[in-house]
Amino acid sequence: MNFDLTVVGNRDSLYIFLCIAILVLAIACINYINMATARAANRAKEIGVRKVNGALRVDLIVQFLSEAFLSVIIAAVIAASTVALLVPTYNQFLTKEISIDFLLQPTSIALAALLLISVALIAGAYPCIFILVIQTDTDTEGSIRQSHNSRLRNALVIFQFVVSGTLVFGTLLVWKQLEYVKNKDIGFNRDHIVIVALRDVKLKEKHAEIREDVASQS
Hints:
7 helices; 218 residues; single chain; 71% helix
């Protein structure tokens, strides 16, 4: 709000952190996709055994998506616990009082559940499709045909490293800037400084006179 007397949040900062969160989630999804597809060769025999025993395609889909959901839930529990433990340290570093109590509100819980479902579907969809197209023989000796999958995996790995490197570089850059701002000699004492906004037009016109009157006070 304009002319707000209190220090409030910055919407641009929220957008930046939101973008960073999306990129981190994308890296996590790519990690899961790469590991799941890399393990596909070892799971070919398992898929063959299940097909021979009468497993339908939908049964395999449910299995692989359930594995993705389980991984996401475990990661979410670890992440939430880490956030709860680091909030005091984070507040001490920023000299602010940030609370995470809003995460326990019904709306936040519903959004978190929707996010978990979305991430699980995104991370588990491609490995599920890839594993289901594995060509298995009736003797359960799984064999995988070479496909364009390696190109996609290479592209995902490159994207992952580019994003990771950019985030690390950006973090170091911001850290250096904060250190510079905290330690730079600005030429005056930061303590006992009062800032008063002159919102009235007439007051602004008499800025010099008001400044002299205030400066004359002990």
